[in-house]
Amino acid sequence: MATSVLLSKVSIAREFNRLGYNAFIGLYSIRRNAVYPSPLEDVAKMLQYIITNHESLNVSIDRYSICGFSAGGHLAASFCVKGIGYDQYSLARPDMLMLAYPHTSFLFDKNSKTSKNFLGKDFKKQSVREAFSVERHIDKDFPKTFLWQCKKDKVVSIKNSISLAESLKRNGCRYEYI
């Protein structure tokens, strides 16, 4: 049975469990404590805990997926980026990524709370924004991705999902965008 690490949403985790998946809810640094690399370190610690305790938890560690919503979507997607995510923590690449209304880019809303929190004092620097905009770092080995967002989302611009989907397509990645 595959394992999923959800970066929020208790009801979603319960539904995954009901469907027969091992789902874990992970807490991660937010607001002023969310400056890179803290949130990614939190994800790595969660996964290391699951891997270390997989026998007592009775879960498979052969493959795993990661899921995130809004700013948690940025964190989940960032963890899938080689160079800043999984490989920095000597972990296997996630097999699948699930994103709901994700804030994946720092190139559209330059004054968002997510930008200020994750990028810290350098949030206005273009080079820093590009370094952590997920769509700029997709390659052919990026995990299979399921991505959805409402067109009229008033919190996270749909430009995030559109640019991510375009990058996934351009790089020949397996994805579904609704």
Structural overview:
- By secondary structure, the protein is an alpha/beta fold.
- The protein contains 7 helices and 6 strands, in the order βαβααβαβααβαβ.
- Helix 4 links the parallel strand 3 and strand 4.
Question: What's the layout of helices and strands?
Answer:
Layout: E1 3-6, H1 10-18, E2 22-25, H2 38-52, H3 54-57, E3 64-69, H4 71-79, E4 96-100, H5 113-119, H6 126-131, E5 144-148, H7 158-170, E6 175-177
Unreliable spans are: none
Coarse shape: globular
Structural class: alpha/beta
Helix amount, in percent?
Answer: 25-40%
Mean pLDDT: 90
Characteristics of this structure?
178 residues; alpha/beta; 15% strand
Q: Concise description?
A:
The protein is an alpha/beta fold and 178 residues long. It is built from seven helices and six strands; from the N terminus they run βαβααβαβααβαβ. Helices cover 35% and strands 15% of the residues.
